[in-house]
Amino acid sequence: MATSLSSRATQRAASSRTASSATSSMNAASTTTRRANTLRRANTLRRTVAAIAALGLTATLAACGTDSSKSPSSNDTNATSSTTPATDQTTEPTADANAFPVTITSALGDAVIKEKPERIATWGWSAQDAVLSLGQVPVAIPEFAYGGVDGVLPWVTEKIEELGGEQPTLLKGGDNGSANPEEFVAARPDVILAPYSGLTQEEFDALSKIAPVVAYPDQPWATSWQDQTLLVGKALGLEAEAQKLVDDTNANVEALGAQYPELRGKSFAYGANNQPEILNVYRETDPRVQLLTQLGMTVAPSVEELAPADADRSYFFGLAYENLNKLTSDVLVAYFGDQAAADAFVKDPLVAAMPQVKSGAFAPIVGESFVMASSAPTTLSIPWMLDQYVPQLAEAAKNVK
Amino acid sequence: MSRRAWAGLLIVVALVAAAAASLAIGAAQISLHTVWEALTSYDPANPEHIAVVDKRIPRTLVGIVVGAALGLAGTVAQGVTRNPLADLGILGINQGAALGVVAGIILVGATAPAQYMWFGIVGAAAATMLVWFLASRGREGATPVKLALAGAAIAASFSSVVSGILISDNLALDSMRFWQVGALAGRGYDVLLPALPLFVLGGVLALALGRSLNLLALGDDTAHGLGLNTGRARVLSGVVITVLGGAATAVAGPIAFLGLVVPHAVRAIVGPDYRWILAYSAPVAAIVMLVSDVLARVVARPGELQVGIVLAVIGAPVFIGIIRRGKAAAL
Predict the structure, then answer these.
(1) What share of chain B is helix, strand, coil (3-state, %, to 5)?
(2) Which range of residues forms the domain containing residue B104?
(3) Contact A123, A197 (CB under 8 A)
(4) With a threshold of 0.90, does the pTM exceed it?
(5) Closest CA relative to residue B7, chosen from B206, B305, B321, B277
C-alpha cells in the first residue's frame, strides 16, 4: 500500500496542487520540482488523475479540487511576446529611481515593488540567471541537486565569482517540492522572483507576506527565457538592460544557428526518458524547444498530432515506446543524466527501430549540467553551452536521410 | 459439475482471454492481423512486430507470474496470521524490499529493475525475518497479533529509514519513484528468468501449505491437537510469503490490493478450504493483474499508466465492498 514514503515521493514529483493533494496530506501546498530529469511529473500526475477519471472514479478525486494555480490570468500587463521584444518599452527613462514603484501582474496576483530591491530571492528555475546577468547577486537562490556542484549550477558559480558578490543562501525544496516560507523569511528579501516556477496560489500568498512575489505570467513552467529576463528586468528597474540582454542573446543564438545551415528547416522532436518505456515529448511552450526553433529548426508536426487532448496546458506529454514509430521527425533530441542512460535508451528495440536513431539523426544531450543548461536556457546558460550544443545538433542534422 | 469445477473452467478460459488481450491491446493500436503476423512470421525490422514480440509477450509473462505470486503470498499471509486484512505489507515485505532497492541504488548504482531486483528480495527477506524474530519472543511464539504488531513496527521503521535516505539523495529518489508505484513496463526476460526459480519454489511450497493453513484456522490449540506442528507451519508460511511476495515486489514494485482482494473473492466462490483457495487464487490474481495492465495501457494513450495505480483504483472499492458484505469477519 501507499507508504508514507511513496506519497512523499509522489508529492515531491508533483508540481500541481491537484496531484499533491491527491497523494499526500503531508504538505498541502506542494510546489514543483523542476529538475531536469524529474521533469514534468506534474503533468504525468495530472494526466494520471485524468486517466483515473477515465476509469470512472472522478467523484472520489474531484474533492481534491482543480489546480487554481493554473487559472489563466486575465490582464497580463508585462509579459511581452517572446519573439517580438522591444514593444513594451515605456516612455519613462530607465534610470532605476524612476522605475519605481512598479506593479507586476502574474497569474497568481500582483507584485507591488515600491523601491529598487537590494535583497533578491529567486525561486523555480532560471530567475537567478537573469538577476546575475543584470549584474546583481541574489541573497537566496534554490539549490540545484541535479546539474549543480554543491547545489549551484556551474554558470551561476562563474558569474557570482565574476561579480564578486557574497555566496547566496541555498533554498531547500527546489528539489523537494515546496517552497519553505521560513527559509525566505531568513533571507530577508525585498523581492521574490519566480517567473519560471510551479508556485501554487497558497505558496504565492504565503510568500507575498514576506516580500512581493513575481510569479509566472500565464502557466507554470511555460515562460520563455526572454519573458523571464524581461520580467526580472522590470522588477529590478533594469528594463532597458534586460531588453538589451535579450536582444544580444537572441542575436548570438541566431548567428550561431546561421553558421550551421544544415539545421535550417529540419524538423525535430525533443524527448526525455524518465520512466520505463515512456518518452516524455516536449511541446512548443517549453523553452528548450523554443531554443531549437530559434536556431532555425522546426517542431515536427507529429508532436502536436500525438499530444493527447487533455494535455492542452501541459508543456509535455508521455508517449509509450509502442508509439515511438509515430513520432516522425528529421532529428530526435533527447537528454540523459549520464552516458549509461543514453546507451540503455538506444538499446531498447523499439527505440533502435526509430528511423532517426538508425540513421544517426539522433542527438543525445548527455551530462547533468549540460542537460540543465539546454533545458533551462537563459542569458547565462545559453553562452555557457551553445558552442557545445549546436555542433551536436548539427552533427545529427547532417545524418538526416 | 460442481461449483468449483465450473469456476475452475471459467478461470482457465478467462486466463487465456486475458493473456490474449494483453498481447493484442497496448498503447499502440496494432491490428489483430498484424499481431497474428508478428507471432507467426516475425519481421525484426517492423516496429509493430517488435512491440508485440519483444514487449508484450514478456510483459504478459511477467504479469502472470507476478500476479500469481502475489495471489498465493496474500492467501498464505491471511491464513497464517488469521488476519483477513493481512497483505504483504503486514509482514514488512514492501518496506523491506524498498530498503533493499534503495540500498542497491546507492551502493552499486543500480538503475534497471534487473539490477536492483536482488536487493529488493534480500531486503524483503530481512524484513520478514526480523518481524518473525520479534514476534517469536515470549512464551506463545509468533501469534497473529504479535506478528501484526511486529510487522507494523518494522514497516514503520524501515519506511522512515528509506524516507531519510531519499530526502538526502535525489538521484536515488529518481530511480525509486517508478519502482514505488508498481509497474510491469520495462520488466522483460532479464528480470523474469533470473527470478523464475524463486517463483517456482515459492509456488510449489505455497500449494503444499493448504492443509496446514486449514488447521491453523481452527486455532493453535486445536491445530496442535490434530497433529500439526504449528511452529513449522508458520516458518514455512513465512518462507513462502518472503520468497513469493519479496520476488514479486522486487520485480514489479509494491502492488497494492491484489494479494488482499483476490483471496477474499476466491474464498467467496470455493469456500473456506485453503487448498482450493490457494489453487484458485494464483490464476485469478494473474487474470486481475493482466486485465489491470491492459487498462493501464489504454486509459492514458499515447502514454500509459503504471498498473499499480490501476489496481489501487479498482482494488479499493472492491475491498470496501467485501468488508461491507461482512465476508471478511469469517476467518
Answers:
(1) 80, 0, 20
(2) 3-330
(3) yes
(4) no
(5) B277
Q: How long a stretch of residues is chain B?
A: 331
Options 3.40.50.1980, 3.30.2350.10, 3.30.70.2390, 2.30.250.10; CATH of A97-238:
3.40.50.1980
Chain A environment of B26 (Cβ under 8 Å): 320, 322
To test the contact with chain A by mutation, choose from B55, B90, B165, B179 the residue with the greatest count of A C-beta atoms within 10 A, namely: B55
Contacts of B163 in chain A (CB under 8 A): 4-5, 8
Question: What is the identity of the amino acid at B283?
Answer: P
User: Inter-chain contact A52–B55, Cβ cutoff 8 Å?
Assistant: no
Chain A: residue whose CA lies nearest to B186: A276
User: Long-range CB contacts (< 8 A, 24+ apart) of A257-262?
Assistant: A257/A294, A257/A295, A257/A296, A257/A390, A258/A296, A259/A390, A260/A295, A260/A390, A260/A391, A260/A393, A260/A394, A260/A397, A262/A394, A262/A397, A262/A398
B94 touches chain A (CB under 8 A): yes
d(CA B314, CA B183): 15
At residue A180, what is the residue type?
Answer: N
Task: List Cβ neighbours of A249 (8 Å cut-off, separation of 6 or more).
Answer: A379, A382, A383
Equal CATH topology for A97-238 and A260-398:
yes
- Is residue A310 a contact partner of residue A50, using CB atoms and an 8 Å limit? yes
Task: Indicate which CATH number applies to the domain containing B224.
Answer: 1.10.3470.10
Whole-number pLDDT of residue A177 = 64
A170 vs B contacts (CB less than 8 Å): none
- Residue where the block lists cell 508509439: A323
Largest CA distance in chain B: 66
**Which CATH superfamily hosts domain A260-398?**
Nitrogenase molybdenum iron protein domain (3.40.50.1980)
Q: Is B251 on the interface with A (CB under 8 A)?
A: no
DSSP class of residue A128 equals H
Is A72 or A204 the better-scoring residue by pLDDT? A204
What three-state secondary structure class fits B185?
A: coil
Best residue in B29, B50, B314 for a mutation probing chain A (most A CBs within 10 Å):
B50
Mutate which of B171, B178, B187 to disrupt the A interface (most A C-beta within 10 Å)?
A: B171
Give the total number of structural domains in chain B.
Answer: 1
Quick one: average pLDDT of A228-232?
96
* Angle, CA B185 vertex, CA B179 and CA B188 arms, to 5°: 100
ipTM of the complex: 0.85
pLDDT tens digits for A254-271?
Answer: 999 999 999 999 999 999
Q: Which residues of B touch A55 (CB under 8 A)?
A: 295, 299, 310, 313-314
| Chain B residue closest in CA terms to A55 | B299
Output DSSP code: residue B304: -
CA distances from A233 to A117, A376, B244 (A): 11, 18, 60
pLDDT at A80: 37
pLDDT at B123: 92
Please report, for chain A, the start and end positions of each structural domain, with discontinuous segments joined by +.
4-68, 97-238, 260-398
Distance CA A16, CA A21 (A): 9
Model confidence over B19-61: pLDDT tens digits?
A: 999 999 999 999 999 999 999 999 999 999 999 999 999 999 9
Q: Which of B171, B174, B302 sits opposite A306 (nearest CB)?
A: B302
Report, as an integer, the average pLDDT of A363-384. Answer: 92
Q: Report the mean per-residue pLDDT for chain A.
A: 79
**Helix/strand/coil for A273:** strand
Question: Which chain B residue shows the shortest CA-CA distance from A54?
Answer: B299
B168 in A contact zone (CB under 8 Å): no
Burial of residue A54 (CB within 10 Å: 0-12, 13-18, 19+) is middle
CA B117 – CA B119 distance, rounded (Å) = 5
Per-residue confidence (pLDDT) for residue A189, from 0 to 100: 96
